[in-house]
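Structure in, sequence out. Go:
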């Protein structure tokens, strides 16, 4: 594109860089191919005829087709056709889904309408039942009010009886209170004695442990582990045993005192129980107060039940029918559903027209592709047939045939090269593979040159260099000379350098020869 570009590829380390305007930057293989507008395959069919790359005609039909479709970017239109088919299928699915949605929506609208009619009938029944429920609640409130009045009158009578009994029970309670005070003092004394008894038992247990340790001590102190005198140990043991006798006697006296006090507590408590049983007023008062509490609980239950019924009454009076709200909601759903049905039918009509438009391009893009194929084949045939004339095969013509759409809508793949020797007989037209020898060599060369020209022209490229690397191994005699003369003529006519690389010393008036020499002195080039 008018910018001098240097491409450098290195091995170990692997690297690929381009230099433009004195700036070097790394690129990927894909970036390089995009810049050159050539792939490795098309590059070796147009600029460098690689040593190990086969000539175009030598390729298998599928390989020829691959290079040809890559050259013309013919897959583009097939991809577009597939995309159109995909869109057509999507539209068909969308159309069917829309039809199904409309059917379901219409069924739903009809179902909701039936639900509205059913709810309207249920609303009438609900109103009648609500009236009956209100009458029942009002009757219950009147009955509870009568029971409440009777219960309050009974409570007043029991309250008067309880007042009289309270005065009599007070006298009896004062007599019992004195005895309960005595019992309280005795019980406090029992607690004190119990504490002293526990302390005495604790001291006794402590002395027992000390005596046991001294008995087991032998010659060592059980406290510090130092050696002690046996006589001292015996004196200390006697002292502890005397103290233990005193402690045991003290503990026994405290236990006896505790037993006596507890017996006195039982006597006083029994006396209190006997006194209580003799208190008739107090017992009657307890019974009357129990009945009053029961009446009060009953009254509270009546008040609570009355409150519940009053709230239920108010709730029923203010309650709106659930059917009314649902009827309104369903009517809104019907209106919304009918609106969606109208919109869906309009969209369905639009999809019908769009489906036809897209379906047209499923085949339309294939037709464009076939047109492109025909144009490219015609151009390639012209290039190859021109070179056949220059190779001395004036009457010979080459015709190409590639994939075609079958009746079933599929594609028959392959790239056929048909050769007509110009004898005027249709039966003489044969596939290129049927030709051999010098004729086959010239056909092969014409195909390679024609394809190289088409590749560069299709990509808008011009190249003043072409390299044929080890491509004379299949030529001999006049075939080799014809090829070299043709290439020389192509070089002059197109103002390009054509390099022939070969291991053999070729006898031909080249414009120049560069010889690679490898001997004991090393490798070098000689012009």
């Amino acid at each position: 594109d008018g910018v001098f570009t240097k491409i450098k590829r290195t091995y170990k380390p692997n690297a690929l860089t381009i230099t433009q305007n004195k700036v070097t930057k790394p690129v990927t293989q894909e970036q390089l191919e995009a810049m050159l507008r050539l792939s490795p395959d098309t590059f070796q069919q147009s600029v460098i005829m690689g040593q190990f790359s086969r000539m175009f005609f030598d390729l298998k039909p599928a390989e020829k087709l691959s290079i040809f479709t890559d050259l013309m970017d013919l897959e583009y239109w097939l991809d577009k056709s597939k995309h159109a088919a995909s869109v057509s299928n999507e539209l068909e699915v969308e159309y069917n889904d829309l039809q199904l949605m409309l059917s379901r929506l219409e069924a739903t609208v009809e179902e909701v309408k039936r639900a509205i009619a059913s709810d309207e009938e249920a609303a009438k029944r609900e109103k009648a039942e609500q009236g009956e429920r209100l009458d029942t609640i009002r009757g219950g409130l009147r009955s509870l009010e009568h029971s409440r009045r009777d219960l309050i009158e009974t409570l007043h009578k029991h309250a008067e009886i309880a007042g009289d009994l309270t005065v009599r029970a007070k006298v009896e309670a004062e007599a019992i209170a004195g005895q309960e005070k005595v019992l309280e003092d005795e019980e406090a004394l029992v607690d004190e004695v119990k504490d002293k008894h526990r302390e005495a038992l604790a001291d006794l247990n402590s002395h027992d442990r000390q005596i046991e340790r001294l008995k087991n001590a032998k010659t060592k102190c059980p406290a510090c582990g130092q050696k002690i005198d046996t006589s001292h140990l015996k004196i200390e043991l006697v002292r502890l045993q005397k103290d233990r006798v005193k402690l045991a006697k003290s503990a026994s006296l405290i236990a006896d005192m505790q037993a006596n006090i507890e017996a006195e507590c039982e006597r006083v408590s029994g006396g209190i129980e006997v006194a209580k049983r003799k208190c008739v007023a107090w017992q009657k008062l307890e019974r009357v107060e129990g009945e009053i509490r029961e009446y009060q609980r009953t009254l509270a239950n009546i008040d609570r039940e009355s409150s519940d019924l009053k709230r239920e009454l108010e709730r029923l009076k203010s309650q709106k029918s659930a059917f009314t709200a649902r009827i309104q909601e369903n009517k809104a759903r019907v209106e919304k559903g009918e609106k969606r049905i109208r919109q869906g039918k309009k969209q369905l009509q639009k999809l019908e027209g769009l489906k036809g438009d897209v379906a047209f391009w499923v085949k339309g893009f294939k037709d464009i592709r076939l047109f492109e194929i025909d144009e490219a084949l015609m151009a390639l045939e012209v290039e190859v047939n021109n070179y056949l004339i220059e190779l001395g095969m004036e009457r010979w013509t080459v015709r190409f045939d590639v994939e075609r759409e079958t009746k079933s809508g599929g594609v028959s793949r392959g790239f056929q090269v048909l050769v007509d020797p110009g004898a005027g007989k249709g039966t003489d037209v044969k596939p290129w593979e049927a030709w051999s020898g010098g004729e086959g060599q010239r056909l092969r060369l014409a195909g390679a040159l024609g394809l190289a020209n088409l590749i560069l022209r299709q990509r808008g490229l011009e190249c003043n260099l072409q390299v044929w690397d080890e491509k004379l191994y299949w030529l001999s005699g006049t075939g080799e000379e014809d090829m070299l003369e043709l290439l020389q003529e192509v070089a002059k006519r197109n103002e390009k350098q054509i390099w022939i690389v070969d291991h053999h010393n070729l006898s031909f008036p080249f414009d120049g020869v560069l010889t690679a020499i490898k001997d004991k002195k090393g490798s070098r080039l000689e012009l």
